[in-house]
Amino acid sequence: MVPEPPVTERDPLIYFGAIAGFASTVVSAFTIVLVLVFRKDFGVQAISDETTVVQVVHSLSVGLAYLLLGVVAVALWRFIGPPSTRSTIASVVGVIGAVVVAGGALAAGLFVQLSIPGYAVIATLVAQLAIGGWLFDINIELRGRQPKTSVMYSLGMVFGIALVVVALGRLFGYTSLLRSAGFLITIGFLVWPAGIGRLLLSAPTPTSSDSARTQSSPPTPRS
Length: 223
Hints:
Layout: H1 12-38, E1 39-41, E2 44-45, H2 51-79, H3 85-110, H4 118-145, H5 150-172, H6 178-201, H7 208-216
Antiparallel strand pairs: 1-2
Helix pairs in contact: 1-2, 1-6, 2-3, 2-6, 3-4, 4-5, 5-6
């Protein structure tokens, strides 16, 4: 009797995180095109009748990019399993930060004509600090596990540092490095999520035989 081939099932959370990574890159690219078309420079609005519409679309797309980054954080936490306590804490902080930044950007887009309270701005900057810390930590973790793709993880670390620099600069009024750090953030959003999406898609899929063998195997005693 011919044995049946093993049934493979992709982890839906990891797969969804991979799709979110690619989607975040696409949304970020759209945001950058929007900025280049309707603004003279980053952070300098062009004078046009479409300014309000552009602000709304820009804020919504930025919020979506950060929200998708939070999905990637959850998928990476599953991907590197069993995660360390440090990685788990960093992932939770990163997800919360992504949700806060996304919520602030979405609210700014939906209520563009209203002034943003000062505490909301501070909360967003603190959330950016959290995302930057998570990016730095998770890329160190990935680099230790898969050194062959260390270039992408180095980019992710720079991405995180740039987010921290921008957040601290805006919190304390240091604007000299904002333009350079903002450029690094742009590169990070364009490259890193897609690279992580590709990494997540390459995750091995468990087979039914492996699952059965794991369930039937007694636990290994620890010394």
